[in-house]
Amino acid sequence: MLAGLTEEQKRDKIRTDPMIARCLAARRAAEAKMTRSRRGARPRCSPQIDNAQGVESLAD
């Protein structure tokens, strides 16, 4: 789609093409969603030891 265009033409096309604008907006939204989910993420597992007496937490 941008092959064969000069750098200036590419920048202009990226700024004005609605399909490219939708794609970039979706990409930004996905990146923002990932950033928000990482910010409040809880650890996937708590540190524990399995032994014969049961599970012990390492936090104690």
Give a nutshell description of this structure.
The model has no long low-confidence stretch (mean pLDDT 75). The longest helix is centred in the middle third of the chain and has 22 residues.
- Main pleated sheet: 2 strands, antiparallel
Structural class: alpha+beta
Ranges with pLDDT <50 over ≥5 residues? none
Mean pLDDT across the residues is: 75
What's the SSE pattern? HHEE
Strand content: 5-15%
Task: Report the strand count.
Answer: 2
Outline type: elongated
Straight-line N-to-C gap: 60 Å
Give me the Rg, rounded. Answer: 24 Å
Q: Give me the side-by-side strand order of the main sheet.
A: 1-2
How helix-rich are the residues, as a percent range?
40-55%
By DSSP (H or I, 4+ residues per run), the number of helices equals: 2
